[in-house]
Each structure stands twice: as structure tokens, then as C-alpha cells.
Amino acid sequence: MEDDAELFYRQLPKVELHAHLNGSVSVATMERLIARKPHLNIDHSMTAILKGQRRTLDECFQVFKVIHQLIDTEEDLLMVTKSVIREFAEDGVRYLELRSTPRADSKTGLTKRRYVESIIEAIRQCKEENVDTEVRFLVAVDRRNGAEVAMETVKLAEDYMLASDGLVVGVDLSGDPNVGHGKDFLPALQKARNCGLKLALHMSEVPSQKEESELLLTLPPDRIGHGTFLHPEVGGSQSLVDRVREKNIPLELCLTSNVKGQTVGSYQKHHFPYWYQLGHPCVLCTDDKGVFSTSLSMEYQLAAATFGLSREAVWTLSQQAIGCSFATDAVRQQLQQRWALLLPEVF
Ligand code: 6MZ
């Protein structure tokens, strides 16, 4: 049974801006995938980190490898994307930006183009079926695949930005932060920016990325994923903080992901209050709701409980996220109106 607080957080209209598709697959959908591919001998403990459990970031990346084995056809992608969109909508997410790394698979005939098209098709089908959330797509560059693939990925994103009626809106830089260097991706990211794609970049997810973050800030990105080690108290620097603030670059903050992936010691030690108290735009996100066994309403509830936010403050936090999205002004306006209309239902 849902208690009053849970109901409030689920009904609260929310914006999700940092969700990796393959990390967002729920247990129920995972069951369907596992049943389709019994020969892989995969069980649930290999695809999700349950309550109370933690893994190193390295181990988290092993989990994605397992999930990728289960999702390797157009049919899988269509099914998974539709389920993820529906689950976010059921959790009260009214605007969703999904991101995913195009993969090809010679065994199943999956190509990177068909990968992107399957996701776009899923978004279209959800719209036709009146699933109550507006969805956009960011094409992800996996840093492990190097500069050349990054450039190809950006070209793909550019093609589909033009061919998707505005569904593809940007590019993400993600993948194991301990692999590769940001400088290798500057040309591709610059190209993305020049052709009108927005940039959502993982930055300072681990302590060793200080120099890389300085470099990426020259682009500058439109949003920063995590930014865990940007501020001086954790080994970042005041000049990094100053630059992020000057350019007013929103941060996508994923509490449970950071705690379970052990880049942050506990919820109390999360960098959310550092930035929030500065009045800097912060957007609560899930990162990988399937892998980290969370939901966006749970993330809001956790943030409120840990940092003592009132319901009004929580409302304002969720409303401010609209302005950090990559939606057009017209869509943002519609969302603002929806938020205002839904206000009396929540309080
Ligand atoms: C960096 C992450 C991530 O693209 O196959 N990904 N990259 N840091 C994180 N923090 C935990 N969580 C997920 O979704 C899975 C991929 O997203 C990126 C990784 O590249 C991972 O392989 P897609 O849909």
C-alpha cells in the first residue's frame, strides 16, 4: 500500500533528464527478456543492484554488459523502450529525455541506424497510445569507443535530428569515466554543437577528471551529468565551480546511483546541497532506474528527507527542471501550464 508521502511524490509532476535506456529496464521487463533468452543463463542478481547493496563503478559497468546481451534486436529495443517510457509516465514523469548508445550486432543484424530508429519508433508509438509523457532522445557517445566512433555517432545524431520531427535533440557523453580522455571527444562534441544538437556531458564523475572538466567547460556543455567532484571540498576547484555558475549550466544529480556506485559515501554526503544552497539549477534524475532499483519519485522523496526540503521546495525543484530541458519554448510553456494546473491536486 502506498502511504501519503509516496502518493505525493508519485503524483508530483516530474521531469527526467538523465536516464540511460538500458540502465532503466525494470525487473518485470528484465524477466521477459531473460525468458526469451534462457541459453544466456542470466539471472536478476546480474542485472540490478538491490536495496542496501553497493558495487564499485567498475562493477556497475559489468552489469551493463550483461544487460546488452539481453537487448540485441530491434524487437527487444522497441519493447524495452516502450516499457521504460510507460513506467516513467506511471511514476508521474511528464517530460522525459532518454539517452542511449547506438549498438550494432552482426549476429542479429542490428545496425546502429536501426537501433536509433527503433527507439524513435517506440517514442512515436507511445505518443499514439496516449502515454502521458513527452519524450525526447539524446544519442549517447560512449567514451570507451574512442574519437572516431564518437564522430560517427554525432553524424548519426545529426541525421536523425533532421529526420525525427524534433525527437532527437542532443548528444550525451558517457561510459566508464576511467577510460579515455575528454580531449579526444572535443572535435565530435564541437561538431554536434555546431549543427544545433544540445550537449549533456558526464563530467567529474570520478576525482581524476579535473583537467578534463576544465577542457569540456570550454565548449560549454548545456548540462552536466553528475559533476560529483567539481567543487573544492572534494578535490575539484573554485574556478571550476565559478565557471559552471557563470555559464549557469544545470547539473543532473542522481543520488542513489552515486551512493550505490560508491562515488559518494552516503546520501548525506551527496553534493546536491552544495549546489542547491548556491541557488544553482539542479535537476534530480535516476540515471539507471533498473540497475539501481529506484524511481524518480523515490529520488525526490530521498532528497527531501535527507536535506529537509518542504513540499513547496520540492514542487519548485521539479518545476525548475522544465527550464533545464532541451524542449522547445512551446513545449516548455505547455509543461509550465500543466504544472500550474496539477498544483492543486498535489497539495
Ligand atoms: C557513465 C553510464 C552510467 O546507452 O546502453 N552509463 N555512463 N556513468 C554512469 N553512472 C553509473 N550509467 C550508464 O545505457 C547503458 C550505458 O549508459 C552509460 C554506459 O555507457 C552504459 O553502458 P545504454 O542505453
Task: Give an overview in words.
The model has no long low-confidence stretch (mean pLDDT 96). The chain is built from 14 helices and eight strands. The chain is α/β, with parallel strands linked by helices and 347 residues long. 47% of the residues lie in helices and 14% in strands. It has an eight-stranded parallel beta sheet. The radius of gyration is 19 Å and the shape is globular. N6-methyladenosine-5'-monophosphate binds next to helix 3 and strand 3.
Beta-strand proportion: 5-15%
How would you state the average pLDDT, rounded?
Answer: 96
Radius of gyration, taken over Cα atoms and rounded to an integer in Å: 19 Å
Instruction: List low-pLDDT spans.
Output: none
How many distinct beta strands? Answer: 8
Shape: globular
- The helix tally amounts to 14
- Largest beta sheet: what is the strand line-up? 1-2-3-4-5-6-7-8
Main sheet summary: 8 strands, parallel
What portion of residues is helical?
Answer: 40-55%
Global structural class: alpha/beta
